[in-house]
């Protein structure tokens, strides 16, 4: 359910509408940006797949606001990850604004095309 005209937030999607149309803002992007984000995500998945197939299967969960991705992982019972043990560490999520994320995506796209 989207937020209606004049409402601040939606029940499910944090977007606002105006005259029945979704308004672009921090939580929305136009089609061009969406396709850039989609291509970037596909490339990151391809890179991760190649790394795994190449033997890189290290455990490096993400941590944000005191929670780790281990909380949602179906393999946590067999993984034995423990941040309190020597050699184990977590990645810290780098909070960024949408503009910073898209600038990073644009830089990555420029490097891939040689621009």
Write the layout of secondary structure elements.
Blueprint: E1 17-18, E2 21-22, H1 31-53, E3 62-64, E4 67-68, H2 76-79, E5 91-92, H3 98-113
Parallel strand pairs: 3-5
Antiparallel strand pairs: 1-2, 3-4
Note down, in words, how this protein is organized.
It is built from three helices and five strands; from the N terminus they run E-E-H-E-E-H-E-H. It is α+β, with helices and mostly antiparallel strands. The protein has helices at residues 31-53, 76-79, 98-113; strands at 17-18, 21-22, 62-64, 67-68, 91-92. The strands form two sheets. It has a three-stranded mixed beta sheet with strand order 4-3-5, with no helix packed on it. Helix 1 (31-53) crosses helix 3. It is extended. Strand 1 and strand 2 (21-22) form a beta hairpin.
Summary, kept brief:
This protein has 115 residues and is an alpha+beta fold. Helix content is 37%, strand content 10%.
Number of helices: 3
Distance between the termini: 41 Å
Could you tell me the number of beta strands?
Answer: 5
Shape: extended
Portion in helices: 25-40%
Q: Overall pLDDT, averaged?
A: 81
Proportion of residues in β-strands: 5-15%
Radius of gyration: 19 Å
User: Which stretches are low in confidence, meaning pLDDT under 50 for 5 or more residues running?
Assistant: 1-5
- Give the strand line-up of the largest sheet: 4-3-5
Q: Give the SSE order as H and E letters.
A: EEHEEHEH
Largest sheet: 3 strands, mixed
Q: Look at the helices and sheets and give the structural class.
A: alpha+beta
